[in-house]
Design goal:
There is one protein chain. This protein is globular. By secondary structure, it is mostly beta strands. It starts with 5 loop residues before the first strand and ends with a strand. It contains one helix and 50 strands.
């Protein structure tokens, strides 16, 4: 039987506003009992300071973040740190009462690991002078471009060499300039439009300081730049994250603000039932970007994912990506198969539970060949999982499986999305999905993409029941809605039962609807504005369209 509510006040444990409180915060959270008691963790309203270099380090295998080979020689792969570490807690509400936590240095913002029935609410997490810098073009000549550096950025000039500096980093202005092609570019006349481009200093043969916060970059490609354009420079490796939720159940975030994170703003893996309401993931002050990668990444999750009444602005990848994985079968013996994580940015955890249903997927058609039930699951390496099945007659070494139990339902309702450098929503889940009453203000790629692939990112799987209703798409840099499973050979519909009704498309740079290899598509009562053409289709077996 659950006992009466127990209150835990952070102040009683020495967690005080206007002080550096990383050790006190760690001790406080580790003291919360892992029992069934109803608990509320309470912070006083105020500003709390966190020194990231003093946080406890731990290995975190966070999906879609830095792979093993992306770390520098002096770094330990997947070693991270976080000021908030909620471990194994049950029946707990964390109430920030409007508190603001400012992190000095690089870290993951929060970890919710192995928790059940946990709510985080009424708090803000941000960063002081993070490693993200804005350069604005203020002048140019035949062979030079002049930039102004934003007020938040700190830098030093050491004997003519310029470095960005922060609490725990020092980086030359030209670091990664030859390899980071996915830097964010905001054109002068379109402040809500962002696109991936090469590093603005890539072709520089000299960089000099002109005065306070102004530099001159000498280059033979000055004609490619326009006065008023803005560029955002950041470490593209996705080394940390915002809020990371592995192996949990019934997780709620309400009225949570994040103004900066080093990769994915919220990422959940192997978690059941996620509710995100009244979030504000947007930049502070005069900046227009706050997330190096996706705002929401949902991977190998179960139950239902709900995102409502929230604001998302300034992401270096999708607003939300919901997917599973295609695991490659690398061994088969008796009633066992060994399956492997195939993408270097996603591995290190067991994504299967006893009782899960799997399907055997042909990599070229992306269609199932048979099914089985998991009766045992063991992690045998960082990348490999041994599964014991009730039957494995459909298993073929070199082909793939999908865990069809780990395909959540999705509700994405009443949200505003702005300045998204790729897609608004990337969806590959079998669960019933409702996308309704959202405002997609600007996506550089498609507003919504239904994918599925077993050759590149290996993100599964097919969409079987989706409604896209009463949304506004003010600008899409590619298609409004793109249905494009990445099958190599057509042998039947991959996605099915998609209804697109009552949406408004103001402008799409490509066809408003582009779809292939799908079945039972309904398009009705949509308002289509300035698009090159309405519809492109291929292998749509059942189609109702009345735009």
């Amino acid at each position: 039987m659950v006992n009466d509510l127990k209150i835990y006040n952070a102040l009683d444990f020495g967690v005080k506003a206007d002080t550096c409180c990383e050790k006190e915060l760690e001790n406080f959270l580790s003291s919360i009992p892992q029992d069934e008691e109803q608990k509320t963790i309470v912070f006083e309203n105020g500003t709390y300071l966190i020194d990231a270099t003093k946080l406890r380090k731990q290995k975190l295998y966070i999906t879609n973040t830095a792979g093993d080979k992306e770390y520098f020689k002096d770094e330990t792969p997947h070693l991270s740190r976080a000021p908030f570490y909620f471990n194994g807690l049950k029946n707990v509400t964390v109430d920030g009462n409007g508190a603001k936590f400012i992190i000095h240095g690089k870290s993951t913002n929060a970890v919710i690991d192995g928790c059940e029935n946990i709510t985080i609410q009424n708090l803000t997490i941000t960063a002081d002078n993070p490693e993200m810098h804005e350069l604005k073009v203020i002048n140019k000549g035949l062979f030079y471009v002049d930039y102004e550096i934003d007020e938040q950025t700190k830098y030093v000039n050491e004997k003519g060499k310029l470095y960005f500096v922060g609490h725990d980093y020092k980086r030359k202005f030209k670091d990664q300039s030859k390899t980071a092609w996915w830097i964010a570019h905001f054109p002068k006349d379109e402040p809500h439009f962002c696109q991936r481009t090469y590093h603005p200093l890539r072709d520089a043969f000299k960089v000099s300081e002109m005065g306070k916060r102004r530099i001159r970059v000498y280059t033979f490609t000055a004609n490619k730049f326009q006065v008023g354009d803005k560029y955002y420079l950041y470490d593209v490796r996705r080394q940390y994250a915002g809020i990371f939720v592995p192996n949990s159940k019934n997780v709620t975030l309400h009225n949570v603000k994040q103004h900066f994170n080093y990769s994915l703003a919220f990422v959940a893996q192997n978690t059941e039932n996620i509710t995100l309401t009244n979030l504000d993931f947007s930049p502070e002050k005069d900046r227009v970007m706050c997330s190096v990668a996706d705002f929401i990444q949902i991977c190998m999750c179960r139950g239902k994912v709900t995102v409502k009444d929230s604001y998302f602005s300034g992401a270096g990848d999708d607003c939300m990506n919901v997917h599973g994985f295609h695991f490659k079968i690398v061994d088969k013996k008796d009633d066992k198969i060994t399956v492997r994580f195939m993408h270097p940015q996603s591995h290190g955890y067991n994504a299967f539970e006893i009782g899960d249903e799997i399907e055997f997927i042909h990599p070229e058609t992306l269609l199932p060949k048979g099914s089985a039930c998991v009766v045992g699951s063991t992690m045998i390496s960082e990348y490999d999982i041994e599964l014991t099945l009730d039957k494995n007659d459909s298993a073929v070494i070199g082909e793939y499986i999908e865990n069809v139990t780990a395909c959540p339902q999705v509700e994405f309702v009443n949200n505003e999305i702005d300045r998204i450098i790729t897609r608004g929503l990337l969806l590959t889940t079998r669960g019933k999905t409702n996308i309704e009453n959202n405002h997609f203000y600007s996506t550089t790629m498609s507003g919504i993409l239904l994918s599925d692939d077993a050759n590149n990112w290996y993100e599964s799987g097919m969409c079987l029941d989706m409604t896209i209703k009463n949304n506004k798409f003010d600008y899409c840099g590619e298609n409004g809605i793109l249905i494009k499973p990445e099958n190599k050979r057509y042998a039947g519909a991959v996605h099915k039962n998609i209804t697109i009704v009552g949406n408004t498309f103001k402008k799409c740079e490509r066809a408003c609807f582009d779809m292939k290899d799908s079945d039972n598509i309904v398009i009705k009562n949509n308002s289509i504005g300035d698009c090159p053409e309405k519809l492109i289709t291929k292998n749509i077996t059942s189609f109702i369209k009345d735009f």
